[in-house]
Amino acid sequence: MKTILGLVIIAFGIFLEVVWLGVCFGTVIIGILLLIFAPSILFFPFNFFLAIGLTVMRGVQYKSSGFQYKEYSGQYNSYVKPENNLDKYYEILESNKADNFETIKKRYRTLMKEYHYDSIVSKNLPEDMIKFAEQKTKSLNEAYSAIKKARDK
Fold this sequence. Notes:
Helix Hairpins; mainly alpha
């Protein structure tokens, strides 16, 4: 019953999205401006009812930005929790457990060159990018040291 109700809600969201797009693109200029400058407004009805429908169907709660997975619940949930933090660290370094340590080290150095704070500052990029680079550098360092520590044991 929950699945049917969830699908009905999603179908209603699709219907509203089609109507909304028809209204926006009925006046072509408004539709194009929304598409260029505010696509989140243009696709709001579908996103909103998709989140509600999935919540009803699966009992999973989603964050509002990008429908990111929030918590694990339900036996039919298709999301899988990582086995441990090392899986997360391998993912951060864009590697896997089967890679030898030299490959992981090369990948770490490549990512550090790309995201290091100093390289971002020297390119005169916006403040948001600098903050992102700082966080990315911290997570890369944390992941590399954790994998190195786990492999030394």
